Each structure stands twice: as C-alpha cells, then as structure tokens.
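Write out this protein's structure.
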Amino acid sequence: VRQLLNFARRSSPQQTLCDLNTVIDRTVSLMEPIVKTRNARIEIMNRLPDGISVNIDAAQIQQVFSNLLMNAFLSKEADVAVQIDSCCCDARSPESSGSQSIHCVRTTVTDNGEGIAEGDLPHVFEPFFTTRDIGQGTGLGLSISHGIVSEHGGWMTVESVPGEGTTFAVFLPVEVSL
C-alpha cells in the first residue's frame, strides 16, 4: 500500500550535492539483514573518486538502490551474488532524440539470478508489471525507481540474459568534478 501511495503522490526531490558512495554504503548497510537471511553477497567493485558529487535527494536515490537490491535478492532462491559498480562517463539517454552526451555517474547493480525474459524487458519499468506470483510483488518498485531517476535528470537501463543474471544501470548527471 505504501508503494502505491508513494507512486500516486510522489513528491518533488529535495536535492542537495551528495557523495553517491555514501548513499550506496548506507543502502548496503540497511539491506544487511536481508543479505543474511537470503544467504546473499554484495560486493562493491568500483567506487567513485573523491570530488565527484551528484545533485540528488539522497533518500529517494537510496530507495532506487534498495529496490534494485531487493529485486536482485529475489532473482533466485539462494546464493545470490550482487555487484555494484560506479564510474564517471559521458553517456546519452536512450530516450533522448538528440546526440548530445552528458557527463554523468553510472552505477550498475548486477546479479547472478535467473534473468529476465527478452519479451519482458521492454515492460520492466511500467507500473504494475510483474512476473512474480500474485501476492509476491506489486510491480511498482522499478516504475517508482525509474520515475525518481528521471526526476533527477537521469535515466535507467536494463540488460539481462535468462539463466545468467541481470544488470540495471542508473545514470545521474555529475554536478561537481574536482
């Protein structure tokens, strides 16, 4: 019910310059009890260098990463391994019609789960789309996450290979690079 209410009345982000590494660390720390109960592993592969800041609502972006991690943990019964990787890059939104790239931070969340069927990939960010059994998910987590990232001037992508795993990428504009 909370997800549905959040989806219906999502507030504008209260953005401040933040260190995304700190937001990721807090999210991983909050997910630790679930990691233990699901016999999962999270490994932070690459971190952003010092001096890179993003203009974000930290609580909203933390919700995005929490949703991605929870989906990863549910991607198979046990022994889920999740890798988080952040870097700076120049990229262009797949939804933009122009050829202008922006300097951004890309954070990927990759799991070794069952993957997403090719036919389902175009729908993963749609509200109420879920492949889980009735009562196992609302189909709002990825839609909410996509909306939050869009409101921050960024975008999300997904790549998946059935039987091998899934990678979600979150792109956020870089505000400060020292």
